[in-house]
Amino acid sequence: MDTERQCAPEQSTESKPEGKARGADINYGIDDNPPWYFCIMMALQHYLTMIGAIVSIPFILTPALCMRDEDPARGTIISTMIFVTGLITYLQATWGCRLPLVQGGTISFLVPTLAILNLPQWKCPPADAIDAMTDTDRTELWQVRMRELSGAIAVAAVTQLVLGFSGLVGKLLRIITPLTIVPTVALVGITLFQHVSETASKQWGIAVGTTAMLTLFSQVMGEVPFPGIAYRKGHGMRVVWFPLFKLFPVLLTIAIIGLSTTMWTVCGVLTATGVFPEGHPARTDVRLRVLQDAEWFRVPYPGQFGLPTVSLAGVLGMLAGVLACTVESISYYPTIAQMCAAPPPPLHAINRGIGIEGLGTMLAGLWGSGNGTNTFGENVGAIGVTKVGSRRVIQWAALIMVLQGVLNKFGAAFIMIPDPVVGGIFCVMFGMITAFGLAALQYVDLRSSRNLYILGVSFFFPLVLCLWLQEHPGAIQTGNQTVDSTLSVLLGTTILVGGVLGCVLDNLIPGTPEERGLVAWSKEMALETVQANDDLPAGGLVWEKSTFDFPYGMQLMRRWKWTRYVPFLPTYRMKL
After folding, report:
1. In Å, how far are 70, 79, 413 from 408, measured between CA atoms?
2. How far apart are CA 109 and CA 324, in angstroms?
3. pTM to 2 decimal places
């Protein structure tokens, strides 16, 4: 047995990646097919990266639905989210934009969701009144709210479907500037700080320890080598050293694993020794009934909580989440393409990606997840660190998600995580979302008083207005309840108010393209159309294959000239 040091798993000669041939520092490019065992390992990494964000959403969503902590349905909601995430991720990676991204539940929809559930008709009754209800009444109490959210999400998603498949995204890109992206995305994390403080304050010691371990695992120990045993034919067994925290526990991944086995263990010890009294939110047995009562296997299905209902206030409120996710995904596409050694995404791929995202949000609403879908930034970071951008890996990850979503007991197990641990995760997760939004400032001139004015107004005014409306829910009185509810939701959604302010001010106040960041931004959003050999001879079967072509049917599609005018098909030719 010999010893050697390596930074990445060995690549087999039969599946040698082509990414490096395209000049990118990457182990596996977007069109490469790694060995199946490596695909499974990397797919598990993407799954674990995704699961940290998925399980955090119900900790904010379910209390607003008036659901009790020990209700087994909380696990069902998590399983539903995982199941839908797997379905849409496969569709997106295979038939959508065809980039190796994970498409799933998003924090962005929590902001309008909380604004909707803050309306007088949806506020929860007092805790003692809920305790006095029968199990059937308590179930109907949260399910009627879930049906309202489901209908609002599904109908609002039609807007994203139209934007994508009609090709309107290309026109939208003309007014979506960095000064629109910054408040829209950053306010998602900033707005939820109160919910984070409420969760973390249930035991500050555990919450701070969780945040510290997140920092240690994801940032400090990224280059620490770990030993492993590998076998190679003709060479026997050997010890290899590789950066475990860099290859597999990307950003939040190992942090979540570490937290589950460390800070959760600390909570378990303090529970067993009686340091945490009965009913303390940091006890590991406070939600034991959730795990005990959960079914082992359960296939989620549309309308599982009843037929969705639709209201104008709910739909318009959820439009804020849809638009925020659209802006965020558009900004991710060129970054992912660059990371996985793919060419800049052409307009038809962006159109198709947004359209499939809209389809995913509609399905997520109809399935009763209480949330929409968006590109996971955490998984984008996973590609950047591991240098593995293979589409095949994401397809394997989607399969794992679908199978895991059927295991209802698994979803219930995540509800057992103590609140302070989740609060510590929130501190980092929401902070990273805010930071991603602020990262768009790199394109604009921060020495410009014009830009500073727009930033200040688009950040501060939404926080002031929305906080006031939360404290005065009945302040808007027009004489029409529908109008009152609609205005309350729209004006109470920070990401909508901030995004609209940033967009309007940036497009109205005079400024040079360089000052506004349009020149640098246009380089990131290079909407190039991959030109293929259109004029094929009769029966011709040869064309220039593109990364963003469909996996099947391209030969037939290129023979039909009408497909050149369909904005979401790979044969689309944009009129200049």
Report:
1. 15, 6, 9
2. 9
3. 0.75
